[in-house]
Amino acid sequence: VASLGVKADDVKELELEMIGKSIRLTREGSGWVLPGSSGYPAKVQKVKEILAKLEALELGQPVARERSSHKRLKVADDLYERKIRWGGGTGLILGTSPSYNVIHVRPEGQDAVYQVEGLSAWDLGCEVRDWVSAEILALPAPDLRAFSIKSATGECEFTKGAEGPWAAVTPSPNGEPLDVPSLNSIIGSVS
Description:
By secondary structure, this protein is an alpha+beta fold. The chain has helices at about 45-55, 130, 180-190, and strands at about 15-20, 20-30, 30-35, 40, 60-65, 75, 80, 80-85, 90-95, 100-105, 115, 145-150, 155-160, 165-170. A hairpin with a 2-residue loop joins strand 2 and strand 3 (about 30-35).
């Protein structure tokens, strides 16, 4: 049983392609970004899951060895479900899925086609929305000690001691008292 030789920690870039669409993900430090989308952060856990699947993938015995089978199994260079590359031109073409959690794959540059388990074309979306991290800001709530809120009517500043409750440094523009549950809800939305 052969593997693809993927070492997740060594992969610096992933390219995903379907006919008419493609997306590239690049490792930056301990995270991943979408360089084609202004370097927006990618879903790190999703990238790690894909890399783990590639690392664990076992090719087994070929189900086809001839180029004439490529189009029928949708692993041809010009007819496929997905292509995935992980640096240095190394890649895999994903084709038809004969049953749940099983797919036909062909290493790029080879004629042999394999039936493998654990990888799906659906895991490899080629749209930005498939990979973009919705997490813009994450702060541990216990570590937050001060912040301010700006609106069209003014600005309010809040502080908190190590163990103490939140207090308004500047009063609300309309003079209303501090609404602690609402404040905690705001804090919860960014932590």
